[in-house]
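Project outcomes to date are best conveyed with an example. Our students and postdoctoral researchers have been running inverse folding experiments weekly, and each run begins with a structure described purely in tokens. The record below, which covers 290 residues, was selected by the lab manager from last quarter's runs and is presented without edits.
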């Protein structure tokens, strides 16, 4: 794997016959061949990471990277999920089997219809709260990705009367509003989970045309026109909530971004998003397909 027999033989020959300088050159050559072989092996591994399902490998990678990045930042823990609408079939979406986000690989990505049914479950366990995703895709044709988290930052804003608002430009999308959905209002005393289509539909209605909806005593959902944008919004919703709690603790009036500032800053954020995505991607190493 590291070097061919011919290469090994050449290095052995060099050690016997040539000067120390040539010996160093021979070693350099071995290192170069090693690097070349490793490079080829890596390329091969990346090719092998393409899921057998035939889903867009770039989209699958974004779901895997997004899941792991949010886990790395602590925005999700053992729970939470990232999904993407299937661009070749808008009535389907892609999401992992029931699994902690930090453990998601390309091979764990499955396809669902907009009623939350797995297209080919193969006995794999499904997320109970997949109806968050299915009902939002049904209600919002513009949404191409959905993220659900139990962000610790936002929980206080789901149970208090203080609205979550944009503290700084990275969270500019919050200027459009972040409504709070209370499952008790429509469904009484529940286990708090969006475990059926009716609850998902109600949540999607509260989301409306916004990018974020908070869930009372539970967490939040962010949406966007791509996985990267939905993940970006999930991360900055969590950060903004923590900063807002700090600002409130300081006391006095808070000078939030206005709606117009938010709209302008959001346009810039979306244009430069790949820069931070590439940085985040370096934090996690997706496991190649099994
Ligand atoms: Mn949940």
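After processing, the design step wrote out the following sequence:
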């Amino acid at each position: 794997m590291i070097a061919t027999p011919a290469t090994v033989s050449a290095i052995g020959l060099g050690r016997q016959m040539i000067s120390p300088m040539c010996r160093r050159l021979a070693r350099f050559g071995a290192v170069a061949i090693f690097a070349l072989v490793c490079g080829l092996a890596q390329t091969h591994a990346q090719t092998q990471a393409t899921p057998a399902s035939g889903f867009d490998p770039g989209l699958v990678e974004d779901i895997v990277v997004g899941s792991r990045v949010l886990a790395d930042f602590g925005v999700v823990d053992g729970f939470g999920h990232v999904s993407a609408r299937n661009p070749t079939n808008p009535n389907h979406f892609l999401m992992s089997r029931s699994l902690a986000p930090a453990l998601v690989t390309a091979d764990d990505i499955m396809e669902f219809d907009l009623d939350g049914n797995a297209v080919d479950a193969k006995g794999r366990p499904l997320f109970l709260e997949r109806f968050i995703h299915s009902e939002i895709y049904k209600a919002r044709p513009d949404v191409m990705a959905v993220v659900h988290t139990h962000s610790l930052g936002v929980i206080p804003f789901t149970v208090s009367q203080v609205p979550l608002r944009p503290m700084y430009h990275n969270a500019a999308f919050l200027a459009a509003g972040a409504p709070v959905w209370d499952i008790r209002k429509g469904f009484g005393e529940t286990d708090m989970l969006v475990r059926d289509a009716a609850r998902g539909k109600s949540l999607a209605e509260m989301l409306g045309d916004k990018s974020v909806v908070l869930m009372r005593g539970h967490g939040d959902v962010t949406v966007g026109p791509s996985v990267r944008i939905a993940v970006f919004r999930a991360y900055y919703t969590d950060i903004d909530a923590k900063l807002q709690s700090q600002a409130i603790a300081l006391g006095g009036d808070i000078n939030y971004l206005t709606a117009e500032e938010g709209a302008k800053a959001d346009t810039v954020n979306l244009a430069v998003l790949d820069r931070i995505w590439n940085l985040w991607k370096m934090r996690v190493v997706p496991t190649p397909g099994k």
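The first strand starts at residue 81 and ends at 85. Residues 79, 129, 148, 150, 218-219 surround manganese (II) ion (CB under 6 Å). The training component of this project remains on track.
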